[in-house]
Each structure stands twice: as C-alpha cells, then as structure tokens.
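We modelled the chain as a single entity of 337 amino acids. Its sequence is:
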Amino acid sequence: MRVWIDMTASAHVLVFRPLIGLLRERGDDVEVTARDYAQTLQLLELHGIEAEVIGRHSGRSRLGKLRALQKRLYSLRGWARERDFDLALAHGSHELTMTARRLGIPSSTTFDYEFAWLQHQLGCRAATRVVVPDAIPPERLARYGARPPKLVQYPGLKEEYYLADFEPDPSVLSALSVDPGRVLVVLRPPPDVSLYHRHSNPLFPQTVDFLGRDEDVQAVVLPRTEEQRAFVRGLALPSIVLPERAVDAQSLIALADLVVSAGGTMNREAAALGVPVYTTYGGRLGGVDEELIREGRLKPLTDPRALELRKREAARGERLRRDPMRMLELLLSALRA
C-alpha cells in the first residue's frame, strides 16, 4: 500500500513516528510532506524521517493564511497527483484531507483539540475518517460533519500511544548544562500564530519572569517561533535556559520536576509521563484538558506564585502505555469506508 502523511506542526512528527515504523514493517510505502513551521523540520531530521517540504506558515494575518492555504493546496495536488496513493493520513492537516478528497484518495485525520473551528470545518468535512480521543464529547464534532461512522474515538491520550516505546535519555540534561541540584522547569509558550488563540496571554510572560529570577530554578524555555525565541533571549534572565535548536523534549519533560505550558501536546506528554504539569492556556479548554483537570493530572495556573517548586522524589511518575497499532488500525479504517 502507498501511504501519504502530511505534517504541518511539530507535534505531528511525534504522533506519526511510531505509525510510520509500523506501516513500513508491514511492507507499506510511506511518503511524507511537511510544512516549514516551528520545529517541524528540525524534529523530522532528529527522528530520521525524510520529507518533501511544501509551503511554510504564513504568520498571524488571516489574509496571509488564506493565500498560503491556496498556494499549498495547489502545490500538494501537483505533488500527489502522479503518486497513486492508496491512503492519506494527517493530524489536523486540512490541506491533506482537502487535497486527498479532490484526488479521490481515502483519508483519515486525527486531532485532540476540538475548537480549532476553521481548521476542522475544512479538514473534517473533507476526511473519510475522523479519529479523536473519547474525552471529546461527540456532539462538539457534529458541527464539523463528523458523526459516526465517520467519527471514531479511542481511549486515553494520543501521547500514551506514541510514547509507548519511549525511555528518557539523560544526556539531554548535560547537553543543556542543567544543574541537577536546581528545580528543573520546562516551559512552552502559547501558540501565538494560531487562529484559535487570538487573545494575548500575559500569564506566560509573567511566569517566565518569575521563574527566570529564581536562583533555585533552571527554566528551559522551548519556543515555537523565532520571534518567541528573540523575546525570551532579550529578557536576559539568569535562570532561563534557551536551546538554539529542537531538543529531545520528551526526555526533558520526563526528567523535569515541573512543566508549565500554554499549549496542548506538551501538557499531555507530561501527564502521560507522570510529571506535574500546569496549563496557562488562554483559549477555551477542550475535552481532553477538561478530563485531565478533573482527574488532577493537569492544573490550571492563574498566578506563577502558586507553582509548587520542588524536586521530584521519583525520576519518573506512573505511566500508561497504549499500543500504537490500535491507533493505526483506526486510521486505516478509512480504507473500508
């Protein structure tokens, strides 16, 4: 079988890494396209995944996003037309599902945040299958045209599937010159360029400033964009560590004492790895985060002074590992639709 996977954000590399391996073990031919955004290309390189780079992120402008969408759709269609794919897979890439529908290729899309309205209106309607966590109430997806049997749901977090074979690499700490005697906090800024996160989030800069001045802390900031990197660098805070390139973030999280993130994937990675995690997300919480908060695995943060800054006694918390083959089977169900 010939399979096409499109990756448009950093997290997609992590989601599809084990699935690409399973497909190739079956003897399937997998080709990957990617958009130049955040650390997507660096993570592809880090994980040894070859990809055809098509398009780049257009920034905050709605008009710019529309023009970039039109250009990328045209380029993807030309690239995929002659390759005779049997199936197309994406994690929220509406460009893939729209192109696949135009070319008559069955497609599956997966995601775990249901309020990216425009993205899902385009992507879910074009997809053959929509695969999401069962923590998302199905009625929230009906407005995107995603109802059973098109809609299929899986238990747990996507991170529990793609981290099933993961063991942390302690060398990530020495590579960043982290002092093991200080409290290690991993910080992820908000997705400022995303349409679903339009309003400013002053809490995250306040948290960076608070932790960056604490001499008992080392706070590793993992920016999404070069603008965010430049902002943090300009603060010149003594307790901030700012990597210049994409790092093994999963190992860093697993070895951290605390994670504070304004996004989604890093929060859920921490929860999946049993690491204390706070969210500063300023948008509407999705069903997955709502469930994690109810379970006490994710804590909303309203004031950085509320952070519990102490060394973890255990190197790793409790973990639930789920078989990524189950996730792959749900994505492959598009072939039977």
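As a brief sanity check on the tokenised model: The chain has a mean pLDDT of 92. The CA atoms of residues 98 and 126 lie 5 Å apart.
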